[in-house]
Amino acid sequence: MSFKVQLLRHATLLLEINGRRILVDPMLGKKDSMDPVPNASNSDRIPLVELPISDSGLEALLYNTDAVLITHTHRDHWDIAAQQKIPSDTTILCQPADESLIKEQGFTHVKKVEPELHWEDVVIHRTSGQHGTGEIGKLMGTVSGFVLVHGKHRLYIAGDTIWCKDVEDAINTHQPTHIIVNGGGAQFVQGDPITMTTDDVLQVAKFTKAPVAVVHLETVNHCHQKRPDFKKAIADNKLSSRIAVPEDGGWWELQ
Ligand SMILES: [Zn+2]
Where in the sequence is the domain holding 93, given as residue range(s)? Predict the structure, then answer.
């Protein structure tokens, strides 16, 4: 019974759960293949970096993928390249708000997770989040996280959310053994951050005993807080044994 996670890039994760492979939030485009996020403090094309695998490695990975799990359909989680490269009969698991859009994109095996779904020998629970505050938070639309339960492991993938009551509720309800949060402190020129800042991540770690990994970093132009910012905040708060900041391509075997 093994449960392993590889960070590919940004929020794109590969989960290997007892031989089954789930690809999470695929953004598969080449470096610079998309326009920048508008209304940010810079206009660098995205993704800012390449995937850590070769084209043929990606092809093999998609061939061996059993399901794709999508937290929401913003293009840094579900880009055109993913829509083109992933076979249209792949099982796609998503939040109810995205079911019809993904079907319209031509995918024939789309299943919504609401409030939970049993897939193979994994139970997947949907959780809520806030993709920002106020009007900007509303404009960002509905986002989800998921808790994947297999054996003794309960992995909470929080998705694009700031630290908020929804995250507290998800942790209280599902008692995750491991947590992955989306950092970067993504922010437009106006308004508050729309993904977790260093302070948000520290709050998560103080609220739970589960180990935390921070992803969603250094790939999209409006993510202003980078790996060194997170590493410094973690070290300053003596939480290095509890919070990891993986590099692209890095593996995490859940214990
Ligand atoms: Zn995002």
Answer: 3-245
